[in-house]
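Give me structure tokens for this 579-residue protein.
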Amino acid sequence: INAEYGDVDEPQNLVGKGNPTEVAIQVMTWKAGLNREFFEDEEDWEISGEFAFDSSVKRMSVVCRNKSDPTKAYSCTKGAPERILNLCYWYIAEDGTIKDLKDEDRAIILASIDGLARQGLRTICMAQRNLDHSPITLPEDTTVRYDKDCARESVEGDLVYLGVVGIFDPPRPESQPSVNTCQQAGIKVRMLTGDHTSTACAIATSLGIVPEGTTAEDRVLVMAGPELDRMSNEELDALPDLPFVVGRCSPESKVKMIEAIHRRGGVVAMTGDGFNDSPSIKIADIGCAMGSGTDVTKGVADIVITDDNFATIVKAVAEGRRIAEAIRKFVIHLLSGNVAEVIVLILGLPIKYQGRSVFILSPIEILWLNMFTGSPPATGLSLDEAEETILHVGPNRNGFFTRELVADTMFYGLFLGACSLMSFVFVVYGVHDGFGNEGNDCNSHSGTNCDIIWTARATAFSVLYMGLMIHAYNVRSQRTSVLFIKWFDNYWLSGSVVFGLVTLVVILYVEPIATYVFIHRYLTWEWAVVAVAMVVFMALCEVYKVIKNLSLIHISEPTRLLSISYAVFCLKKKKKTTL
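Here you go.
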């Protein structure tokens, strides 16, 4: 832990780096003139042992001995107030004397701690022990370290209570909007933290995780870690819902919470930065480690959040949904185009001339539609930006090929295929009263007197061609009308449509290409048929979307409209806005 400073006489200019809690304590000591450097340089003390923080006992200690007189040594302990107080038997009175810590004194201290915690302050208790008068044998060799040669229990006992520090460690400003966004997206945010339960409750209330007015005594929404640990799996599963805030939780508490959510069929995203978070991150469906976290935690995580920001997780959820939505659009566009072609070809088989089925579409036309007409717009769809409402609906837990995707593919393909086939039939039978008797070998480029068939084929091909262009905009939104979407924000999609229109002109009006490659004829008045077919196709698509939206109104209860999955986030505040 380091604390850089500009001027010792101006403690307000201190700049800290390291763990925010440790830095806050360092700043407090600098302001009091009792900083570590003061004791090391002027009082001749040195640290000769350290017992690192242990989540099972929720405390850490250092042993300091005097370099001038190695027989003088103190242990300094800090940690969770309720854990430290259990080890304290004395306190320092205002006159500097050490007095017995009585039950009434403990009650006053606990009330003060609870008052600080209700204000959202992180509380840390400080205590010390004079090792000069302890049964611990002080080694004369100053190189001996207490953390290697003494048991932890022998040092962290018979402590003298010093006081409680209240640290204000507010969440980042973007945390509260991010929590609200998660809730709108059907994600339940749960806060599991080692802080005091009242502190956790106050912060969770400010973030919107629990409603205003919630207190630590509300056992439906808030629970202490030890209480959670004592509950059996059957008791947890019997609860109407799992608690949203768990204070003073241990690594085992987090694992137990994730397992309980899994038993309820939920999907869990767990984030954390400490070594103790690694077991829960490992068993979560999506383990997220903070970039400033330990290497162990990042090693077991699926994702590392480099900026330690909870809002980044929400952005990742939105991006994941955008990618899934882009794939859905891509698939619907391509498959519905294929369905349309199949309808045209299969239902067109009964249309015969001279005893042979007439090709509604030539082989090259089919190949061109698949490779050069449908593919560029579909690729453009994959680059679409996320819709504004992408985080306003619940997660999809029904797999990729949902009933809606299959229905969209079939109905859109049916509409486009029917329009294409009917345009062919209209040109042949509605205008020309059949094929006539002069045509010969009209399925081949060497055919003669095939103007009627080739014109009708070009009309059906143009309907499919133009339909795939417009259909790319239609599938950009599952339920929003094509009239209300943005048309020119996707440059790749716009470019592919322009490319398609230019190539259509070449395909229809360059005679060698039209006759010998695609086996069709240029269009004149038949463009009116294409235009009417496009209007009919888009009208059918709009009616279909209206029907889908009306059907959702009848099942709009939250439990049915949103497929709610769970996410567990242990929110640690400020620069470590994580779960």
